[in-house]
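pinned: reference chain
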Amino acid sequence: MMKLAHKLTLILLFIGIIPAFVIGGFAFYHASSGLSHQAFNQLQAVRGIKKTQIESFFSERKGDMAMLVETIATLEENLNDISEVESLLAQPRSGEEHSFFSKYINTYGYYDLFLLSPQGDVFYTEAKEADYGTNLVNGAYKDSGLANIFQKAQHTRGFVLEDFSPYAPSNNEPAAFIAQPIYRDGKLLVVVALQLSIDAINNFMQVREGMGETGESYLVGSDSRMRSGSYLDPEGHSVKASFMGTVAKNGIDTESSREALQGQTGTKIITDYNGNPVLSAYTPVQIEGNT
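pinned: its structure tokens
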């Protein structure tokens, strides 16, 4: 595992590369201070669990990448040709239905896997979308999140993370990426990149145990747009809706989110994105990564 140069601040409910999160909308305010105190204590406990989960999620993604890079680097050293490595891992073995790359993204829950040449050519992608065969330096997607992470990987020579933003080849759906370069004798051989799945994040963020009938937890980025979907408003406050729409209608700009974005942790009664009074617990999350 590579040493990390910087800590990235996850902004209220997600990633700047880089996000943090708030758990809001847990219950309407009760007149009884005893009930309120109990509810806040429970919110704080859930907040701590969600914080641990999001930190663990990105730690696991870093581990996934390390394993993938080691596999490719070892094969390249033996075969001495990255194109042979691609052919070996992209094709199913005799008697098998799926290739190594296909099994990898399905097993670990990624949307896509890329191999990028030192010149920025997308010479392999499992999904074979419109980015396949394009150049990330001067092609149609030179301003995309994938192009950004390609540049970051070259500069840092280590694990890097790119925040969610609309990605044209994937039907303009919001996409986030992780990547790591492989060098041999000081020469860049390939940049390996993975496209994260929003579903993988929603799977644990939308678990509502301990939050009652009206509770939810979600991630919000520094742009006040969603980085995980809302359980209570899955249409208007999904990650996709928040990027396609406006912050006012589809994002989160509450007192709690603003304080979390400023690095504060707390609990209070606020007015939520639906205009309702709610008990809210919020905190920024630290994610290790390279800028």
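why pinned: The radius of gyration is 21 Å. The CA atoms of residues 157 and 186 lie 10 Å apart.
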